[in-house]
Structures are given as structure tokens and as C-alpha cells.
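Q: How do we represent a protein-ligand complex in a form that can be generated cell by cell?
A: Start from the inputs.
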Amino acid sequence: MNFLSLLESKRDGAVLSESQLQSIIAATVAGEIPDYQLSAFLMAIYFRGLNAEETRALTLAMRDSGEVLSFPADGRPVVDKHSTGGVGDKVSLPLAPLLACLGFRVPMISGRGLGITGGTLDKLESIPGFRTAQRREEIIQIVQSVGCCIVAQSEKMVPADKRFYALRDVTATVPSIPLITASILSKKLAEGLDALILDVKWGRAAFMQTEKKARQLAKGLCELGRACNVQTEFILSDMNVPLGTHAGNWLEVVESVEVLEGRGPSDTRDLVLDCAARLLVMTQIEPRRGAALTRAKNCLDSGAAREKWNEMLAAQGADLTAFEAKLRAPSPVYEVEIRAAQGGIIRDLDARIIGEIVRDLGGGRLRADSILNLEVGFSAMKKPGERVEKGEPLALLRADNEDAARGVWEVARAAWEIAS
Ligand code: URA
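Then emit the C-alpha cells for the protein with uracil bound:
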């Protein structure tokens, strides 16, 4: 294959054939294309796009770039949820064990942080000992016995997405509908799913800035998912304001545990329950929406999902004693309160500013080889609609050291708009 001429073709807006896209993916996985050429290819797709046929061919070639899972029929539907990425979006963490308790099997293949949005794998790796690089046999064994696992694309599973994902993150090529579609569906189709719910975000901290664009992405994802025999539906959700009260890898694990214990902020809890209820309806386990929601709520509040979470952590190598100890006494970092400059009602909280600060403090990547600080971020964030007095804390900021915190403090405060 002459990759340079294919690169030129896409740069000039040509349509690539299925076999050309398959060759590109095979060469990508074999390490035959250097990062600079692949980055240029991704940028060409970013500007020129891919039509529906090219998107389908790319997705399937990426799915087949590694092992594909299949599960024995045992009466439990194989399901998953995937989000297009947001700030404070930790829904996958409590959702996977909740779904397992509701009678599903969940072989969730997730991603790392992308742009300013957080990544499920980075969050989970803040848990002592937790491993995300399981082999196919191990994934199947954990899913069959525990009911859920959350793992990474790897050299074995969807390796083409692993390579593209890391490059897109640092080459400003994430917000492309065909690239997002291929990235998400290649992973989800490799899971051997019966049903999939997609949480497609829109707003200033999402890859799709408008609801119209998000709907376009969602419809394309659903059409392709269904064409590949996976029952697929979507939710559109607003990503102008962070989800929940915590943003930052470890801090989002903390909020997830709160939700699993029947506590936690209502927006995170509601989205977790909504995803679970939709999957109950889609798979006809509970065909009526109201009853499905009640079933999901009762299950979450029973504490069963919290126990299932620990079971999943243990199955993936986590040190539960160290994890519970870290929940009680988090790793020491510098902490400072962001205080309100005036009293009033919070009118807005800019998720983009929050996401950028978490990334710049070391919670996300600026380069492919960035080493993350998984402890930094915001907790106890006050949200729009809440009243604050002058000088009252708007959030607690955790940074590596005092200088790092001082460097972002004023910008952080400007993320909150307070109406007198
Ligand atoms: N999630 C993914 O897995 N890939 C994307 O491109 C965006 C969100």
C-alpha cells in the first residue's frame, strides 16, 4: 500500500474504498505508518469527512483490528452504555455494577481522557492496583462470573482505536463525527452486544457544541449500530455545566461511590438511573418506563451495586483495603477553597473552564506522553440554582502544590457566574 497517495486522496476530498480503509487499518496496527502521517490522515478526515459507507468500513475495520468478544447465551442480555465525553461525567463507573445487579452482562471497553473530557480508564487507574488491560478470556470470565468489567482498548482488543485515540487527543482531531462514530462503535461492536445506550453530549464542554450537531452524531451512531445488529438508542445531554459536583480522576471515583451508596448529586444519580431504565425497557426485561426506573432505583438504593462494584474492582486486581483507606483519607495534595466574590444565586458554571483547569493541573493530557496526576481536580462544586453568601466556598480545588493552585485560582473563580 502506498499510504502517501491515500493520504493525498483524502486531503483532496476523494472517497476511500472499503479495501483501502481496511489496508490503512491493517498497516496502522502493524506499526507501518508513522505517527506524523497518521496524524495528517486524521486531520484530512477532520476537514474532508467520511461518507456513510466510508464510516461503516472504517468502523468495521477498526472493530476487526483485534479480538472480538462473544458470550454464551445464558439469559442475561449483553449490554453497554457509552458517552461521547464530558466534564465530570463519571456515569459509567456506577452504571456498570448497577446493570450487573439488574441482570445484565456488561463488558465495557472504555477510553482514556480525550481533550478536556475525562476518561473512564484514567479514573479507574486512580484506584490502587486496578488493571484495565485484560485479555479476551479474562474479560469473558469476569463478565460471566461478576456480571461486569471495565477494560481498555489494547494491543489485543480494538488496537486501531488505541492508536487513533491517543493521536486524536493531542492533534486537535477529536470533534469529527466520523472519527467519533468509528471510535465508539468499533469498541462497542467488539463487545458482542445485544443492546447499547449512547449518551451524546452537546454544549461548550462537549465535542458537539450544539444540540443539532449532537443529534446528527447520535442518529448516525444509532443507524450504524442497528445496521450491525445491535439494538441502539441515544440520550442527548447538556454538557454546558459539569455533571455532578466532582471533576478530576480520583475525585470522580469518590462521587461514583457516593452514588453507589444511594447518595451523591441528583444529576449524576438521575443519569445513571435513566441509562439503566432505558436498557431495561430496550431489552424488554421491564417494558414499562416507570416500572423500569423504580426497579433501577430500588436496586441502587439496596446497596447491591456498591457490593458489586467491590467485586468488579477485586476481579480487576484492585487492592480493596487500600481503596477503602483512600476513600477515608485521600492522597495528600494541596487543597484550597474557591470562594464567592459576591453573594447571590449561581447562574452558570462553565464546564469548559473546569475541564481545562483539571487538564492543565495534570489531570488530562497535553501530549501523548503526558503523565497524569490522578488526584487533582474540583470537589464540592456548587451548581447553578444554588444560593451562596459572599466568601462562601464554591468548590474545593486540589492541586499538586500551592503554586499550581495559585496559577489557576482566579480563572477557576470566573467559571461561576453569580447573579445578585
Ligand atoms: N468516546 C470514544 O470512545 N471515542 C471518541 O471519539 C469520543 C468519545
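The pocket of uracil is lined by residues 84-85, 111, 114, 174, 180, 183-184 (CB under 6 Å). The mean pLDDT is 96.
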